[in-house]
Amino acid sequence: MHAIVLQAIDRYLEQEADRESVQRLGAKYAARHADLLRRLGE
């Protein structure tokens, strides 16, 4: 049971790290290409 809990925690932490990376990259590219994104939205 202990090993299952540890695996679940590890999986959760990996997913959170991935989510944070995606959010960080998204914000970076949104800022870098703000003008293009604005024009595409028109």
Topology:
Elements: H1 2-32, H2 34-41
What does this 3D model show about the protein?
With 42 residues, this protein is mainly α. The chain has two helices and no strands. It has helices at residues 2-32, 34-41. The longest helix has 31 residues, at 2-32. The chain is rod-shaped.
Which features characterize this protein?
42 residues; mainly alpha; single chain
User: Which runs of at least 5 residues are low in confidence (pLDDT < 50)?
Assistant: none
Secondary structure tally, helices: 2
Order of helices and strands: HH
Strand content: under 5%
Largest sheet: none
Average pLDDT score: 91
In short:
This protein has 42 residues and is mainly α.
